[in-house]
Amino acid sequence: MKLLLLLFSISFVAQAQIDSVLLIQETKAFQEELTQEFKNRKTSPLTPADFKKFKHHDFYPIDLTYAVVAHITLTPESDFAPMKASNKIIQEYRTYGMASFTMDGQAFVLPMYQSKSLLKNPEYTDYLFVPFTDLTTGVETYGGGRYLGLRIPKEGNELLINFNLAYNPYCAYNNAYSCPLVPEENNLPIAIRAGVKMEH
Fold it and tell me: What single string gives the DSSP state of each residue in 27-75?
């Protein structure tokens, strides 16, 4: 996924009440950005055959139930280590923090990762990579899991995680790409019907 798209994921310092109108607008803008990227031959990961057929992504209806305020505990001193990937290219990540939140009355803890290679670029020093699987994985959504991009809060210890911005890794569309595999710790035992669905 292009960095521009990855970083389109919006992170917030949590407020007493989420601005639902703004959140819906930003989600729609993200969806349009994703579709336009795939329609552009210069940025699309699609194979030539799939590119000719592509019209738009299939998204779940926007549901703010899947936009949750998480309490985060940062662990910036953790060590970098290779993260398993779908192909030969393997990159190093470290667990930069844990996000604790509730959804549908259940409590979850989701690890958030920092890329060693992205730290070389000053624009992405606060970028967090959040891969995950859930009970829709392999049934309604891509079998390899989905991704989110977040930003480290500039202050405070709360962060809005909007699963409506969940997208597929490039390897869901083209085996030529090498994508990080979702660590076991990022398997969520709940169906998250938000973001992009399975695409063929």
Answer: HHHHHHHHHHHHHSTTT--S-HHHHHH-----BPPP-GGGEEEEEEEE-
